[in-house]
Design a protein that fits this description.
CATH topology: Pnp Oxidase, Chain A
Shape: globular
Number of domains: 1
Structural class: alpha+beta
Helix content: 10-25%
CATH class: Mainly Beta
Order of helices and strands: HEEHEEEEHEEHHHEEEE
Largest sheet: 12 strands, antiparallel
CATH architecture: Roll
Number of helices: 6
Bound molecules: flavin mononucleotide
Strand content: 35-45%
Distance between the termini: 57 Å
CATH superfamily: Electron Transport, Fmn-binding Protein, Chain A
Radius of gyration: 26 Å
């Protein structure tokens, strides 16, 4: 029998677990060792919805997460740069290092036909420089056709589980508290701009840097085309795998596969706050003949200006 269990049995120590969730900016777990008395901490209110949707599987209307504390706002003083690419890289690096985020480079890409019918899907950012953000795809796909007839598009990176844990120990004469504080961050970056194809040379270089199975996959899939069943894909994959994996020749990049660069005109950096007064800082290019309103808008570098939006 451990010392712990002997002391517990004799009532010298009590353990209490309190859990505050979504009530405040922080999530607290308090373990009180020894003594009695009532420690602070609220229990969770029973969920009640004032929304009258007929169907609400799993309590969607009540899903609500606490984000950062209000004393951790994201303000213009927190910008690491006065131009958006460096600011983006700073957030991106943090997201890439966060355990819960497997693909920080995953982004949604919204396109639209020339008649304005929109469409959105996920793609992976495969490069960024100070002129644009790169991804690769099939030029026969719906997204590529839409970008060809209408290059205007929008990207969204959403990094939800940016959690930071702090551990604190408090001791006083009668009690020892261990407190874990878990602060939830939620950030997104929205980019709007226009897409253009990258050169054949650049696409080919990236294509050949991919694992062979991915190169074969790109040859197999005529992305977004209708087929009669999975077998069509499997047969094509088998045939091309036999052809290319048996000998050591490089796999030629199909003409219909390559990259796009999205050239941004606007970046929005958004950081969630628990009280829903979220922080939004936008970088945009000045409109021709536009004069800066110095009360709201600040001059950045490389032709960018930045300003705060209401949430
Ligand atoms: C996380 C994730 C990343 C993806 N990355 C790419 C990508 O880089 N390129 C691509 O063509 N499709 C990618 N896809 C598949 C697309 O979302 C989409 O299904 C496909 O490109 C066809 O889209 P379209 O018919 O609108 O052109 C990805 C899907 C997911 C879920």
């Amino acid at each position: 029998m451990t010392a712990w269990s002997i002391l517990s049995r004799r009532g010298l120590f009590k353990i209490r677990v309190q859990y505050i969730h979504n009530k405040a900016h922080l999530q607290l777990r308090t373990y009180s060792l020894a003594g009695s008395g009532s420690e602070s901490g609220a229990s969770q209110d029973p969920p009640h919805s004032c929304i009258s949707h007929d169907i609400d599987p799993g309590g969607i209307a009540e899903m609500r997460k606490a984000y950062k504390g209000t004393n951790e706002i994201f303000d213009v003083g927190d910008l690491v740069s006065k131009e958006p690419f460096k600011q983006f890289l700073s957030w991106f690096e943090e997201a890439s290092k966060t355990d819960g985020i497997r693909e920080a480079n995953a982004m949604s890409l919204a396109t639209s036909t020339k008649d304005g019918i929109p469409s959105v899907r996920m793609v992976l950012m495969k490069g960024i420089d100070d002129t644009g953000i790169y991804f690769y795809t099939n030029y026969l796909s719906q997204k590529a056709k839409e970008l060809t007839e209408n290059p205007n598009c929008s990207l969204m990176f959403y990094w939800e589980p940016l959690n930071r844990s702090l551990e604190k120990h408090f001791f006083n004469f009668r009690k020892l508290y261990l407190i874990w504080i878990c602060i939830h961050f939620s950030q997104h970056v929205r980019v709007s701009g226009a897409a253009e194809r990258v050169s054949e040379e650049e696409s080919s270089k990236y294509f050949h840097s991919r694992p062979k199975a991915s190169q074969i996959g790109a040859c197999v899939s005529l992305q977004s085309q209708v087929i009669s069943g999975r077998k069509v894909l499997d047969d094509r994959n088998e045939a091309l795998t036999k052809k290319y994996l048996s000998d050591d020749v490089p796999i030629p990049k199909p003409d219909y596969w390559g990259g796009f660069k999205v050239i941004p005109l606007r970046f929005e950096f958004w950081q969630g706050q628990t009280n829903r007064l979220h922080d939004r800082i936008v970088f945009r290019k000045l409109q021709p003949n536009e004069e800066i309103n110095s009360e709201t808008t600040q001059e950045g570098s490389n032709g960018w200006v930045y300003e705060r939006l209401m949430p």
